[in-house]
Amino acid sequence: MSKAKEVYSSEKCATVTTYVSAKDKIKDPSITEKYYDLVTDFFEAGWGKSFHFAPQRMGEKMQDAMLRYEIKVAEALQLKPSMKVLDVGCGVAGPMRNIAQYSGANIVGLNINAYQIKKAKEYIQKSHLENICSLYEGNFMDTKLPAASFDAVYAIEATPHAPDKTKCFKEVHRLLKPGGCFAGYEYCLLDNYDENNRDHCQIMEDLEHGGGLQKISSMKAVQQAFLDAGFKVLEIGNSCTEGCSWALPLRTGFRRSKFGRFCTDVMIRVLEGVGIAPKGSTKVGDFLNLGADAFVEAEKRGIFTPSLFFLVQKN
Ligand SMILES: C[S@@+](CC[C@H](N)C(=O)[O-])C[C@H]1O[C@@H](n2cnc3c(N)ncnc32)[C@H](O)[C@@H]1O
Predict the structure, then answer these.
(1) Centre of ligand 1 from the C-alpha of residue 140, in Å
(2) Which of 33, 34, 118, 143 is the most exposed place for a label (fewest CB within 10 A)?
(3) Has residue 12 got a pLDDT over 60?
(4) Atom of ligand 1 at shortest distance to CA of 139?
(5) Residue with CA at minimum distance from ligand 1 atom 27
């Protein structure tokens, strides 16, 4: 039985219930771990091996935009073969394999989720990258890795899961050699967000729940967390510029249309009913759809971006 099936089925179906009822609460890292047990197969089926957004230019293909987004991080950190690099929250090693292939750097993928680590290992082997890519199961709040052991660190849409951003960034700061840089993408609220607007609050609540995220903060608060962790901020800003859209894959294509979604929903219900899809699949599909709608709405209203690019340095 695959790990995913094992997680969904029998008594472990409680995982879905635990996650669904964790709404509104500050989630400890074990909830994030459960979240990725539930959604990893869905993400791979719908998104591919890299689990992040990427602002798409007019006419640009999603996969090209994703690769461009990842390479921007490699270039900002000036990654090269002699460097030892940490990928914080590496998913199933989608970005890691692309960045390793592009730069030749030696990359360690850190991930709290054992199921993703197992998948990442397989994909690294299939790509023959074992000589430069390795994995480490751990929590980015307290990795237990030795201090000053990396030349550079990056995190692509992983630290929005941190229950305490400053503490997480302090841990990255500890792991970096002096002068080393940390780059990547964070999530943040934009100026249009109004905390007194009930629609805005509901959209963000659904987005956070659907994405397994902690409370999203403002750009200023993210910047302050870097400063409080001891970093010098070299660059920070929304990389989704005029004319680009990061939510395009969530609002286009047959599977995202009302009819396409209806068909998928019926199919999952039937497969779950006859025991082919694991128990709980329908509920997972439901909260992912809730999150997807909230992401689309957040882009439409200009209240949120998942594309806050940062480059910070340890003195
Ligand atoms: C949105 S996914 C991004 C994955 C990857 N960076 C990518 O772009 O494909 C967030 C990742 O962060 C990892 N993560 C979340 N909380 C973590 C924690 N406390 N410690 C380590 N990894 C964590 C998740 O398991 C997941 O792999």
Answers:
(1) 9
(2) 118
(3) no
(4) 20
(5) 91
Nearest alpha carbon, ligand 1 atom 20? 139
Q: 32: Cβ below 6 Å to ligand 1?
A: yes
**Pair 314, 153: CB distance under 8 Å:** no
- In three state form, how does the secondary structure of 245-269 look? ECCHHHHCCHHHCHHHHHHHHHHHH
How do residues 249-283 score in pLDDT, each as one tens digit? 998 765 666 666 665 666 666 666 666 666 666 67
Give the span between the Cα atoms of 16 and 36, in whole angstroms.
Answer: 11
Asked if the 62-193+217-239+305-314 domain carries CATH number 3.30.1330.30, the reply is no
Dihedral over alpha carbons 247, 30, 269, 258 (to 10 degrees)? -10
Match 């990359």 to its residue by tokens: 107
Q: Rg (Cα) of the chain, in Å, rounded?
A: 19
In this prediction, residue 11 carries a pLDDT of 40
Out of 32, 144, 214, mutate this one to test ligand 1's pocket (max ligand atoms within 8 Å of CB): namely 32
* Ligand 1 site, residue 89, Cβ cutoff 6 A: yes
Q: Give the integer Cα–Cα distance in Å for 217 and 230.
A: 19
Q: Which atom of ligand 1 is nearest to the CA of 29?
A: 19
98 lines ligand 1 (CB under 6 A): no
pLDDT per position as a tens digit, 53-90: 999 998 999 999 999 999 999 999 999 999 999 999 99
198-240 pLDDT, tens per residue?
A: 999 999 999 998 898 999 999 999 999 999 999 999 999 999 9
Backbone angles phi and psi of 229, in degrees to 5: -80, -5
Q: Is the CB of 113 under 6 A from ligand 1?
A: yes
